[in-house]
């Protein structure tokens, strides 16, 4: 019997799942509220295919990133989409960062990052990135740049070719579990399915709530802002230059990325967004902000990270502060080399009642409804592997 499956969310993870299930014979419908696919995190990120350097060995992030990287590369080959292995340096600028760099090296080795090299020789560092400042680094030559929007579109074509439907402009307002199935309601449709999988990114806790799942973890939106480098100054960067991240925080820090279309951007920072889809300081949702402020975890989180919060917000509002952070890694950079702000993205970061920021991917299930509750970076890299993981662990044998 054909399984009628609804996927909520037309980002890269929802579409990867729809492609997998339609390829296995499910009757798949994707509901996407926007007029186009990949309009939120998927289309507003750094475009990096991560090689798995940072993640706790054995975590879902570590295993699914390693598997997902290979699958994204194969998909790009199959579809003729650009995939550029520009490589990445994680650079320690001074001695205080050597301990954290050693931990990244340890994790990278445990995670099987291919061809990773530790560099302690500054002249070798400069062979890879001639304009970088630093005393040591790890180099991941297979970290790549891609266009995740094109990848999502290409996977959507496979869904359609397998007979699946992709309904754009269909915001799901209600998911009701009923005897023998689930109803998915939008303003213009009301249909019954055998099962539903929600991959709704910034709205994943809202969807979870409608089906009676635990309100925790909630989504805390963190905006990431980028500055674009002028074409002339982009020669200062060959591939990707990353800082050694602060291990207390789940974000990687402002970095230089040579993108798949050859422009270089600097970012993203991490500032609290005042709306789930708040791409600038003027986009404010009183409801979203109030809900975050009254979440039990708000006090503990603010207490732990207020200093970093002030620092990030200042850098967002004052270009010289953002520039100063970037120049630490490329001293030749001039403030005028950061020509304009690029499109910002908002990360859907799950946080618990105690104020803890969830690090790993997380999935929840309420009867026939499966909800992806935390899919932060590297979920774009890992998307095809996340889809396989959900199918294997959460969907019944009918899915296979
Ligand atoms: C600034 C930034 C930089 C990043 N850099 C990288 C990177 O370099 N590499 C990497 O691997 N990852 C990166 N990430 C993370 C990556 O972008 C995300 O993990 C990934 O895109 C998540 O995909 P998704 O499909 O779960 O979510 P999304 O892309 O956010 O898609 C969710 C979709 O659900 C839809 N939706 C929500 N509610 C409803 C509803 N009620 N009805 C219908 N549709 C609904 C939304 O419109 C949206 O299209 C970055 C993220 C950000 C924000």
Automatic annotation (TrEMBL):
<dbReference type="Pfam" id="PF01266">
    <property type="entry name" value="DAO"/>
</dbReference>
<keyword id="KW-0560">Oxidoreductase</keyword>
<protein>
    <submittedName>
        <fullName>L-2-hydroxyglutarate oxidase</fullName>
    </submittedName>
</protein>
<dbReference type="InterPro" id="IPR006076">
    <property type="entry name" value="FAD-dep_OxRdtase"/>
</dbReference>
<dbReference type="InterPro" id="IPR036188">
    <property type="entry name" value="FAD/NAD-bd_sf"/>
</dbReference>
<keyword id="KW-0274">FAD</keyword>
<keyword id="KW-0285">Flavoprotein</keyword>
<feature type="domain" description="FAD dependent oxidoreductase">
    <location>
        <begin position="5"/>
        <end position="392"/>
    </location>
</feature>
<comment type="similarity">
    <text>Belongs to the L2HGDH family.</text>
</comment>
